[in-house]
Amino acid sequence: MALEACRSCLSCLLIPLALWSIVVNVLLYFPNGNASYATSFQLPNYVWYFEGICFSGVMILLLAVILIALECSVFHQCCQSESCNKTYRSFISIVLALLGVAFSGYSCIIFTLGLIQGPFCNSSNGWDYIFKNTVGGYLTDYSAWSQCTEPANAVEWNIILLSILIALSGLQLIICFLKVAAELKRTLCGTYSVFVQVIEMITERALLWHKN
């Protein structure tokens, strides 16, 4: 019952998450508010995938808007029967929610890989991914962070923003999964109700035929 009651609000929750994902991803291009690193392409390669802007951002935002439109009573009636129309809407919602799972899941994977790889920064050996061989071990080795001399606070900037993006895309993933579960429950329950009605109608007609 709780899942069914929250079905309509799940799509709305995706909108602020998508907007925040876009904002946080944009911040990755400006370490410490400096735009010169983006113009000289001195940023981690995963940043140029635009996953926070495109996939967990714009694409999730579009899916959320369409899902909200599907839940509105003014949506176009595709069938003469109301039960048929609801089933059609649920089917489209399931497909869109599965796309949301794919988009947010992909973004979460890319953000995680970027966090494990570490920032692209300048050190005594020049510009490189100096933590790429640590397999994420640098995250707890605070003394090693000072090896990145440029951009200033590059490690902290990278870790904080990517962690936020992982959390945002993870929440999107959970919400989309819940959306799929809610719509499947609605569809299956609706199909079961129709099946029961058909069985009852057949039984009543059989009893009438037997009496006659």
Automatic annotation (TrEMBL):
Annotated Gene Ontology cellular component terms: membrane
Topology of the protein relative to the lipid bilayer: Multi-pass membrane protein
Entry keyword set: Membrane, Transmembrane, Transmembrane helix
This protein's record includes keyword Membrane: yes
Transmembrane helix is among the record's keywords: yes
UniProt-annotated location(s): Membrane
Transmembrane parts of this sequence: 12-31, 46-70, 91-116, 159-178
Top-rank lineage group of the source organism: Eukaryota
Pfam families, per database record: L6_membrane
Family: Belongs to the L6 tetraspanin family.
Protein name in the entry: Transmembrane 4 L six family member 18
Organism this protein belongs to: Anas platyrhynchos platyrhynchos
Lineage: Eukaryota, Metazoa, Chordata, Craniata, Vertebrata
